[in-house]
Design goal:
Length: about 110
């Protein structure tokens, strides 16, 4: 299953964006640490809609794209391994791919 981005609380006025990957029946879900006005979310493209008078959405969409790509790269690497990592290990490896930090999931 591909990587997906979604709002945690789509009915709320503002919601955090989450990233999810289902790999061999293991679900890896985590916050992107980005929250937006829910009206600005496009569920079809899984991105933030363009906002007049601001370019911040471009930087946020670039960050979401980088997160998706890091998750997809990690998924490709895991295909060669018979072992499914723990959630903590998965997200630790994710952040190493994303920005080279060894932090754990928030």
């Amino acid at each position: 299953m591909p990587v997906s981005l979604f709002l945690k609380n789509p009915q709320a006025e503002k919601s955090p964006i989450y990233i999810r990957l289902i790999f061999r029946n293991a679900k890896f879900r985590h916050t992107t640490e980005i929250s937006i006005d829910t009206k600005m979310w496009n569920p079809k493209t899984q991105s933030i809609r363009e906002q007049r008078g601001t370019t911040s959405y471009k930087a946020l969409n670039a960050r979401l794209k980088a997160m998706r790509e890091a998750c997809e790269l990690l998924e490709s690497e895991l295909m060669a391994s018979p072992v499914i990592p723990t959630s903590e290990e998965f997200w630790k490896r994710f952040y190493l791919k994303l920005d080279g930090t060894a932090r754990t999931a928030v």
